Amino acid sequence: MFENWKLLVVGAGVMGSGIAQLYACKGFQVALYDKFPEQLDRAKQLIANNMENLIKEGLATQEEAEKTRTLISYETDLEKCAPQADLVLESVFENADVKRETFAQLDKLCASDCILCSNTSASNIFEIAPVSHPERQIITHYFNPPFIMDLVEVVMGPKTSEETLAKVKAFLIQVGKEPAVLKEYIPGFIVNRIATAITREAGYMVTQGWVSAQDIDSAIRNTSGIRYAFEGPMALYDIVGWDLTTSVSVGVHKSLCNDTEIGNSLGKELIAKGELGLKSGKGVFDYTGVDPQQFMNERAAKIIKMVKAIKEL
């Protein structure tokens, strides 16, 4: 159904590059656009590195890597590539003005039946970047690395058509993705909304002096981290029993962090000290002497192994 579709990815950062790689690996012709040539050069190298990692893990062959390379064109002229696209995947910087300008350009240049997708992880694209055909605008939020992680959050706008939703879902399923649909925009969508609640509580427990960051991570890795690979929280509560879980939660709810300010106290403390995590060399944990690219390569390899193991369950 979609074999002849031409795709346009706008924004050649880590996510944009990964999305372009994903669809080229599936045999689609992909134009990867960025207005900065040096960013396209970085994207080309990043994709090459990613393909090398997939080959090492047995998820791609040298021939498939070469075919993927030939299916991606690197573009700096949006007027050239936008009119040819059947589906656009916007993945530019999370800034309202940048998003608005990008969609305004796409709205003028793309064909009347082109589907306009945004990979935003936070923005209400339907409010900040309106288009003349809102029935064709939709959020498709991928997770890093997008060529490995199967989930794509699909978020409808107030005027997104059921036809657009059906096409996007069918397209994602055809390439092996698992779409999770939100019928309307809510901040954080599904995953980041739940992750924010977890991180807020974890940070609160650390700042209260109740537990160390190391033990927080150990506790989650060795319980929920294992179970959530094959059953979500709704299924887990079904198994345990809602009578028991509800009874337990009565006492817990009253003691939970209820801070509604932006960020959490632990995050604010770390930011004030310039301890931003891996990229600054220190966050909750110390990354002194750690090569960030090597760290991310090793992390991607672990994700690949986990995904392969889960598929065997």
Automatic annotation (TrEMBL):
UniProt keyword annotation of Disulfide bond present: no
InterPro entries: 3-OHacyl-CoA_DH, 3-OHacyl-CoA_DH_NAD-bd, 3HC_DH_C, 6-PGluconate_DH-like_C_sf, 6PGD_dom2, NAD(P)-bd_dom_sf
GO biological process, alphabetically ordered: fatty acid metabolic process
Keywords carried by this UniProt record: NAD, Oxidoreductase
Pathway given in the UniProt record: Lipid metabolism; butanoate metabolism
UniProt: NAD(+) binding residues: 11-16, 34, 94, 99, 121, 144, 279
One Pfam family, short name: 3HCDH
GO molecular function, one term: oxidoreductase activity, acting on the CH-OH group of donors, NAD or NADP as acceptor
Source domain of life: Bacteria
Site feature: Important for catalytic activity: 141
Gene3D superfamilies membership: N-(1-d-carboxylethyl)-l-norvaline Dehydrogenase, domain 2, NAD(P)-binding Rossmann-like Domain
Residue ranges of every copy of the 3-hydroxyacyl-CoA dehydrogenase NAD binding domain listed in the record: 8-184
Domain 3-hydroxyacyl-CoA dehydrogenase C-terminal: 188-287
Family stated for the protein in its record: Belongs to the 3-hydroxyacyl-CoA dehydrogenase family.
PANTHER family named in the record: 3-HYDROXYACYL-COA DEHYDROGENASE FAMILY PROTEIN, 3-HYDROXYBUTYRYL-COA DEHYDROGENASE
Protein name in UniProt: 3-hydroxybutyryl-CoA dehydrogenase
